[in-house]
Amino acid sequence: MKLFLFVSTFLFFINSSVQSQNKKFTYLQCDISASITGNPDTNETTNYPDEDRAWIVPDGLGAKIGYGIQYKKWITLGIHSGIDYKWYDKLVAVPVYLNFGLNPKVGAETRIMIQAGYGKGFALGRGDLSGEYRKLRLGIGSDDFIIFIETAQYDFPLHDEKNVGNISLGVTVISF
């Protein structure tokens, strides 16, 4: 909680000083993603011998939003939150995390996005179930629209598992 208050205050003061210089050093990021998992029924035999089963299947949806500071659209640091829903685990979780990103240009109009996030995750409807939240994201796109793959992990026990993780595919819209 102290870290959250410190980062919030820090971002507020940075934002205030930047606004007085009449330059935009902030960004707003919105993400929508679909998590995927291995199909548990891939090797099941059916009455249809020619039926092929998918190796991966959708496992949930997620949406996140974040606000922070940026330097020349290349480095970002912000506070993000959102909601993740996992179908098979019947889990709705809310992460609140600090996000650090690098977005180097690799072409005239192309950027690679690398982001890492660390914070706290809360399970909704499961009492006081909470734990650490970590994520890594790799994407490619333009200055304001990026397609990504992400791996995230919630460090709280669920259904006899030590932690809950997912792999997601999604899109990011960034407004600098």
Rounded to an integer in angstroms, the radius of gyration calculated over CA atoms is 19 Å
Number of strands: 8
**Distance N terminus to C terminus?**
28 Å
**Strand order across the largest sheet:** 1-2-3-4-5-6-7-8
Question: Which percent range describes the beta-strand content?
Answer: over 45%
Count helical runs: 1
What is the arithmetic mean of pLDDT? 85
What is the N-to-C order of secondary-structure elements (H for helix, E for strand)? HEEEEEEEE
Helical residue percent?
10-25%
SS class:
mainly beta
Shape: flat
Largest sheet: 8 strands, antiparallel, barrel
Unreliable stretches covering 5 or more consecutive residues:
none
Question: Overview of this structure, please?
Answer:
- Strands 1-2-3-4-5-6-7-8 form an eight-stranded antiparallel beta barrel.
- 11% of the residues lie in helices and 57% in strands.
- It has 176 residues and is mainly beta.
Question: What is the topology?
Answer:
Blueprint: H1 2-20, E1 26-38, E2 56-71, E3 75-86, E4 91-102, E5 111-123, E6 130-141, E7 145-155, E8 164-175
Antiparallel strand pairs: 1-2, 1-8, 2-3, 3-4, 4-5, 5-6, 6-7, 7-8
Structural descriptors:
176 residues, mainly beta, 1 helix
Compact summary:
With 176 residues, this protein is mainly beta.
